[in-house]
User: What shape does this take?
Amino acid sequence: MAYTTIDDPSAHFQTATFAGNGSTVVTVTNDGNSDLSPDLLWFKRRDDSPNHVIMDTTQGANITSGNGPSGYNVPSNPSSTAAQVADSTGVMTITSDGFTSKEMSYASGNVSTGSMCCWQWKMNGGTSASNTDGNITSTVQANTTAGQSIVTWTGNEQSAASVGHGLDQTPEMVFFKRGNSTYNWVVWLGQLGLVGGNNMFAYLNLNNAAEQAAGFDFTSTLLKPGSGATTNSGNMFAYCFHSVKGYSKFGTYIGNASADGPFVYTGFKPAFVLAKIVPHAGWDWAIMDNTRTPTNANGTYEWLWANLAAAEFTDGDSGINMELDFLSNGFKIRTARNELNYNGAQFIYMCFAEQPFVTSTGIPTTAR
Assistant: This one.
């Protein structure tokens, strides 16, 4: 059996950086080995402090497709509780290898002027389907090869509610948001084997410790989001992921508070890492990628925080060292700071690949 079914991860995930120009349309073209026409787009302005913005093609990221209300974009802010509001600006068109963009000022200040980044995932080219696996019909846009899907449904707060997620195995990490009201983002972590037990979750827009949820019970076909208004009432959407060998990995590691921190095996050279401490509050969701930080070297690590509107933080700012090396088969923590390496604490991580450790034809990769 081949090591991986995905020889080129850039067909399913890429990061783009670009200079935004406010109300002027900017064309952003991805530079990965494969063209990527994105379906899930997560934006952040790097040099200033507006909120993050997420859009997807099921809910109208491609304004020409008319998926959103009146054909408008329907953005969300993962760094806030804000409800979605139809917006005629933002991502204007999805292209065969990127997107065009302008404005994106919804609920967060101007996130389209200055230095920008956008993390992008491929689903099903904007084409969704009705899914009747659960007792509530969902709308699903799934990429089963890469283990990732977008799910929308109208929640009813029933404790036995279930919706189909469109993947062929149980998701390991699911990002929930109620779109039509001001609720927290819920990140389900129940498949990761956390010390706190099964059915753990955390809030993406907060730096709280993880908690144990009542009613979460996901399967290889279903999301069972419980009876709370946060995860099962009104206009709901979810982004679902599970690990795919050579492409993505969702898991945990234990910190040791040393500059010689833990090595986390992923089975590929990482392109993106999102990490969060589990048992302690007060520490943020840290994001690093190989586009903003293309090499392993002191003083060049660029960090953003998923739960904060703050501008990008560079390793070494104010004498603070935040170092994490991307290697050929995983990542290595090289900081004693609590954000990544609190002694004895469990951390969760979400990681996507630049290259598999070994391709399906046996070609190995190298560290950067």
